[in-house]
Design a protein that fits this description.
The chain is mainly α. About 75% of the residues lie in helices and about 0% in strands. The protein folds into 2 domains: about 270 residues, Orthogonal Bundle (MetI-like fold), CATH 1.10.3720.10; about 220 residues, MetI-like (MetI-like fold, Orthogonal Bundle), CATH 1.10.3720.10. Strands 1-2 form a two-stranded antiparallel ribbon.
Amino acid sequence: MADIVHPVSAARTGLGQRRALLKAEDWLGLIVVAALVILVLAPMATVIVQAFVPGLFSGQANQIGFSGLGEVFSRPLWQRSLSNSLFLATSAAVIGGAMGTGLAIVRANSRMVLGPALDVAAWAIIVLPSFIIAQGWILFASRGGIANNWLGLSFVPDLVFNPWGLAVVMSLKAFPFAYLTVTAALQWRMDDFVHAARLCGASRLRVFTTIQVPMVLPAVLSGTALIFIDVLGDFGLPAALATTYRFPTLTYAIYVAINQSPIRFDLAGVLAFYVTAIMLLAVMSYFWVLRNRRYDFLGGKARLQGGGGSRLALWPNVIALLALVITIVVPIGSSALVSITTRIADGLAPANLTLEHYAFVLDTGGAFLSALRTSMGIAIMAAIGSGIIAAAAAYVVTFSDFRLNRLIDLTCTLSLAVPGVVLGIGYIFVWNSPFLDSLGLSLYGKPAILILAGIAGAVPIAVRVLLGAMAQVPASMLSAAALQGAALPRRLMTIAIPLVAAALVSATLTAFGSAVFDLAINSILRPPRLDVLPVYVNRAFEQGQFGAATAATLLAGTLTILIIMLARLAAGLAISRLWSVQPRRAKGARHAQD
């Protein structure tokens, strides 16, 4: 009887052991929460508070109330910026959502020769900074650009440089969000519904609008919401247009507010609050639509998507070719052509071809190499920092009962909708506050603030990537290692990290690529005498040095892609070598025991 253990006592003992095992994970979770508070939550909190107490964090404090929020409607520039941003985001969401959805459905229902190229182009457009795309369109469509001077298309400038033309340009930059989400939703198909409608006499157009589109409506809404958020928070287009076409937006008005004399941090905070509030409203509306209707249509006859029709189908390939031309070939091709010509007005005459722009930016006495080295260094440190924090956050959320897991997940999800301009303003409020300055911790005006902002911008994406990979790791492996006495660092380094190494490399390299060309963060937080690549390119473009700007962009972009490819190749070889060594070690250990 002495050997009999009461079940309640056993349960309590097991619970105590479990809590003891999770103690290390709890400490790791607290570190992750502290990092997210410093990197994301504190800057966003200051933006919200600033809207109701303008100037609180910049020494320009006014009385508490809504006076700051109302001031936007009394200033013509800010009011116009608000209306322009809403128009641009809404129009681009509708146009880009329709374009992405249509291309995805065409891609899924036909075997196109250009289908793989369309997939690659969609990802490339997402990765490319918007200011580079916008500069390409300006070089093509301005009155002194390629369309007018080289091709004789005099109607193009008036066609592009108007509010609706800009909305189309932004939709061409943002449509991949809808294309990729709808493509993923079309993985499974239910042809019975289509066949039934066709037997009842429905036309192809009616089948498309009443059956195919409604079945992927959640993906369509998701893509449209992402386009709206991306365009509303975009800084690249208005920055590139500043010297060509006057079209102020909220993000550019924020930039103007902190670069005018006197500096108006209070107004910048109010405008940042409006951007954040509109984005959160868009996200909440999207979730409300999904919760109030059912979209579960898959049945037992569902089958994996497989393209139908002839591989040489004419119209699907024509549509894909047209999409590739207007989304990639025109903007990037225009930049490439301008980079090798002396004067845009002289066309592609042999005497006009030159490499002097590349020689100029590569001159060791120039600012390009200095800016490139600085941006590469900042991007490397931001990528490493975001990878470490994202791996820790994904591990805690997946494998622990840490009480603040929901806060970690919610913070990483909502921060995806925070544009770089708003994040930059929050960083100014936090790291330029009188309190931190009195402690000697003020980072505003120092390169370190760019690294922190780069980490903050990359962590949410990296966490989403690693959560999917962590979910594939059996928790039993970690539990067995813990029962054998392996501490948390050893479990991380010998089990979790090796199993998700490929995803961790992808997340880190994505963070590196995005940090190199982050114009918004660099424009707002850059120390006065620090040369950084995005500001160098944008300044050269604003000063009319189009050849130097495009040459610098292509050189830096090529180098960034080369670094990513080499790093991915090296990481792949290292991972393969690691997993080829492990079986040999295990086999040697078994022989030694025998």
